[in-house]
Amino acid sequence: MNPNPALGVFFHWLGGLASASFYVPYRGVKNWAWETYWLVGGFFSWIIAPWLLALTMTRDLIQVLHEAPSDALFWAYTFGVLWGLGGLTFGLTMRYLGMSLGMAVALGYTAAFGTLMPPIFRGEFASQVLGTRSGLIILVGVAICLVGIAVAGAAGVSKEREMSDERKRAAIKEFALKKGLLVAMFSGIMSACFAYGLAAGDPIKAITVQHGTPGLWQGLPVLVVVLAGGFTTNFTWCVILNIQNHTGRQYFQSQIRGEIPDRSDEHIQAVTDAPAGEMAVAVAVEKEAPSRAPMLPNYLFSALAGTTWYMQFFFYTMGETQMGRFRFSSWTLHMASIIIFSTLWGMALKEWNGASGKTKLLVAMSLVVLVSSTVVVGYGNYVGGAR
Fold first, then answer.
1. Angle 45-47-48 (CA atoms, 0-180°, nearest 5)?
2. Which residues of the chain have pLDDT under 50?
3. Contact 2, 385 (CB under 8 A)
4. Alpha-carbon distance 214 to 1, whole Å?
5. C-beta separation of 369 from 144 below 8 A
6. What does pTM read for this prediction?
7. Which DSSP letter does residue 88 get?
8. Element holding 187 (H helix, E strand)
């Protein structure tokens, strides 16, 4: 299969669109606690969709996983668990720094570490990145992406400064810059572990191709393993909250008993799940207070949301196959695409209505810079011949 960087960028854009959009179906979920609908959706995100698509589109999945080196399976799974830990602390980042600054700092760490560390670990950074014209062009694209993230963060900070004191207190409950920066660093680096897990699964990709899997789908067996690790962390935390909040009965009973807790700042939502702010709180805002929850619609909307979430990495693995020897650049393309489409969703949901001209200009600039970064990274792969 001959790599095609332009097609790879397109696949990464589709993945970014899926990541930015997956929260929309959750808006239809009524009268379930966060931990309930997140875990239901998560079964589709981390178990059902990965296994179903891998079984359907690859060859001999069970045999491939059986033949895979134990260290590849271990590290792919472990990095998935660590990615989940990044989500555990992401809510604290929002609490201490606010949505905009916290998102920008955490995304910056995730983009930088998730892009650069895999080629460093492989020993390819000096020879294939610093030592080639195409690699240097890709590095420029990564730097442009980081600038775009910073501009997006500046737009958010500008918007927060324009809020009333009451809204500021509601948006940033316990502002603490030093503590927030440390937590954001941890969350961002842990969230980048998803990229490490995919890189650790390279031997699994080679084995599935040997079994006759088309090159475009070679990453799907790796997702099965990495997402199993992410499921472990998410499942554990959701069950803890189900027990703590007495919400476990919601999986089986439609009758509402007591108030549904609002614990938005404790949600597992990794940096790679970066929907617009309004989408992230939409479920809690739109909850009604009838005596029963609509069970079938809740399960269907959660399943749709979870499947949409998975599609970001379904397209990611497809895009990665098109980037050739510079596949590490896929992480930058993914992160840039998430922010681009999250920002567009924010506009569609009128998140930026009422903002000043300066703030709207910063938003527009962030979009231009981020789109430019994907073009530069794609061009770098093209110059390198994507071999």
1. 85
2. 263-266, 276-280, 282-288, 386-387
3. no
4. 9
5. yes
6. 0.82
7. H
8. helix 177-191
Cα angle value 230/295/350 (rounded, 5°): 70
Query: CA nearest 323: which of 90, 115, 152, 122?
Result: 115
Name the 3-class secondary structure at 137.
helix
Whole-angstrom Cα distance, residue 299 to residue 237? 20
Distances (CA, A) of 209 to 1, 60, 186, 212, 220: 11, 10, 35, 5, 11
CA–CA distance, 317 with 204 (Å, rounded to integer): 13
Closest to 147 measured CA to CA, from 344, 356, 361, 370: 370
Q: What residue type is 94 in one-letter code?
A: M
Alpha-carbon distance of 117 to 122, in angstroms, equals 9
Query: Could you identify the residue written with the tokens 């009333």?
Result: 164
CA distance 202 to 218: 9
Q: Tokens for 147, please give them.
A: 């600038």
Beta-carbon count within 10 A of 180 CB: 23
Nearest CA to 223 out of 80, 334, 386 is that of 80
Domain tally, the chain:
1
Residue 300, pLDDT score: 96
Q: SS3 for 255?
A: strand
Confidence (pLDDT) at 170: 54
Of the candidates 78, 317, 63, the one whose C-alpha atom is nearest the C-alpha of residue 207 is: 63
Structural domain containing residue 275: 5-383
Token pair, residue 15, equals 């993945």
292 SS3 class? strand
Distance (Å, rounded) from C-alpha 195 to C-alpha 113?
Answer: 9
Q: Using alpha carbons, select from 116, 102, 118, 263 the residue that is nearest to residue 188.
A: 102
Q: Is 306 exposed, middle or buried (0-12, 13-18, 19+ CB in 10 A)?
A: buried
The pLDDT score that the predictor gives to residue 174 is 62
Instruction: Note the pLDDT of residue 260.
Output: 57
Q: Can you name the residues that pair with 255 across neighbouring β-strands?
A: 292
Contact 221, 58 (CB under 8 A): yes
Strand partners, 378: none
